[in-house]
Write a structure and sequence with these properties.
The complex is a heterodimer of chains A (about 170) and B (about 180). By secondary structure, chain A is mainly beta. Chain A folds into two domains: about 90 residues, no CATH class; about 60 residues, Beta-clip (Beta Barrel). Chain A contains two helices and ten strands, in the order βββαβββββββα. In chain A, the strands form two sheets. In chain A, strands 1-5-4-2-3 form a five-stranded antiparallel beta sheet. Chain B is mostly beta strands. Chain B has two domains: about 80 residues, no CATH class; about 70 residues, no CATH class. A six-stranded antiparallel beta sheet of chain B has the order 1-7-11-10-8-9, with no helix packed on it. In chain B, a hairpin with a 3-residue loop joins β10 and β11. Chain B is globular, with a radius of gyration of 15 Å. Classes of the chains: A mainly beta (about 170), B mainly beta (about 180). The interface between A and B is medium-sized, with 26 and 31 residues.
Chain lengths: ~170, ~180
């Protein structure tokens, strides 16, 4: 996936794109628009052999001890940081801006009908998560935001972002 | 409740929600998304199955706070008359001014909740403002936090918190005040 400005520029959301600065390792490539997690716990990368380093990583790097898509999805949602506002090339250790709030447009893994307020969750192929695709679920505990628009047979969705790593947002009961 | 512009300032972070033709929404109504079965009054709507459509809180089946809180979408920025199935913009953030159920002093930081109009019905456009320690079940339908201190107030200015803010009943109770 190449650089993509995922912000959905609705006037009522004009000043709602909160940002933080997060460090990215030189060995990690980040594209603008990538969904990022904050490596704030052990065993989030390299099949669960990593230690927390508090750097940002794209979702595709997520690889927990239990190597399944469902497990990686849960870990990604729990440590969700936000959306990369800029890219970071391989070989460059740097700090990039990351959106932790706002309205963003992402492609869906599969087209479907969407209702406002449904859950936007990470998705992937095999055991690897996509960096710039989501799926919509009617019930979910592993979500990174809510659908901000609806319609039939949609291939894209506007996502109201809910960063767990920064805002401390908890799950619904 | 008649349509009233309750908006004062700030980004409203609007989302467009579907409204059924047989549901009447007034501008300024507190609204919920029906994401749980049987959460709405059977007498007012045909379905009891979660359909993810928008309804004013006065359609809730009783004043059970959980339903208000976990499903609270925000404030309708446009009305929808009977007979029209359409999308309505709903504010999920911003500063709003609503009448208080009873005249009272309000303080910055207090929780603002939707008020009841009877033992079993929520008011769509009236609020109460309480500290966490003062809340009873009636006050758990939190819609925001007070942003202006005033003695003998008849209206309350508050910052809107909705489902889309990522705030839920559980987080409010955990943080308290």
């Amino acid at each position: 996936m190449s650089d993509y400005d995922r912000r959905y520029l609705d006037p009522s959301w004009e000043n709602s794109f909160e940002t933080v600065e997060v460090k990215i390792h030189g060995g990690t490539t980040v594209e603008k628009g990538d969904l990022l997690f904050l490596d704030k716990a052990n065993k989030l990368r390299s099949r669960g052999s990593s230690s927390a380093d508090w750097y940002g990583y794209p979702f595709s790097v997520m690889s927990g001890t239990t190597l399944t898509l469902a497990s990686n999805k849960t870990l990604a949602a729990r440590h969700f940081l936000g959306v990369a506002a800029w890219h970071s090339d391989y070989g460059v250790t740097e700090t990039i801006t990351t959106y932790t709030g706002g309205l963003f447009q992402y492609s869906l893994k599969n087209s479907r009908s969407i209702k406002v307020g449904q859950y936007a969750a990470p998705t992937g192929s095999g055991v690897t998560l996509y960096n710039q695709k989501v799926q919509i679920e009617s019930t979910s505990t592993d979500y990174i935001g809510y659908a901000g628009d609806g319609g039939s047979f949609r291939s894209r969705v506007n996502v109201v972002l809910l960063s767990r790593a920064i805002s401390g947002v908890s799950r619904e009961i | 409740m008649a349509a009233v512009n309750r908006y004062l300032r700030g980004d409203t972070k609007e989302v467009e929600c579907d409204v059924h033709g047989n549901v009447v929404v007034e501008k300024g109504d507190f609204c919920v998304i029906m994401k749980t079965n049987n959460m709405l009054s059977n007498g007012k709507i045909a379905t009891t199955t979660a359909d993810w459509y928008l309804y004013p809180v006065s359609y809730l089946a009783g004043v059970t706070p959980y339903y208000f809180d976990a499903n609270f979408a925000g404030i309708a920025m446009k009305g929808s008359i009977s007979g029209t199935t359409e999308k309505v913009p709903v504010a999920t953030a911003g500063i709003f001014r609503y009448p208080l159920k009873t005249q009272t002093g309000v303080t910055v930081g207090q929780y603002v909740s939707g008020a009841t109009s009877s033992a079993t019905t929520m008011s769509a456009q009236i609020v109460v403002s309480k500290k966490a320690s003062e809340r009873t079940d009636e006050y758990y339908g939190v819609v925001g936090t007070c942003v202006k201190t005033e003695a003998g107030a008849t209206n309350c200015d508050f910052g809107l918190m909705s489902r889309f803010s990522g705030v839920s009943y559980s987080t409010l109770i955990q943080t308290g005040d």
